[in-house]
Design the sequence.
């Protein structure tokens, strides 16, 4: 079954689901905002740093603030946000 931390053991007991935590090279996430075309072009060039959240929204993953600064400088048509904006 693999290694489980105390938190994942509690999830197994509470929900009956095994949980496995894996380390990641990424330390920061930013939601990507812009026109559909601009976001799609950015995703195509940065596939190794892209994920989607539960809502299917695009998230840029990185280790360095330098990468975030570079994206903001090189892609003024996009906006990166550290928090997900929710419509209520």
Sequence:
């Amino acid at each position: 079954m693999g290694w489980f931390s105390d938190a994942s053991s509690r999830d197994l007991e509470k929900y009956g689901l095994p949980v496995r935590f894996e380390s990641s090279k990424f330390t920061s996430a930013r939601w990507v905002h812009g026109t559909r075309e601009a976001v799609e072009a950015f995703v195509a060039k940065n596939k190794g740093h892209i994920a989607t959240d539960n809502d299917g929204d695009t998230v840029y993953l990185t280790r360095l603030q330098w990468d975030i600064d570079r994206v903001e400088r090189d892609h003024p048509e996009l906006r990166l946000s550290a928090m997900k904006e929710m419509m209520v």
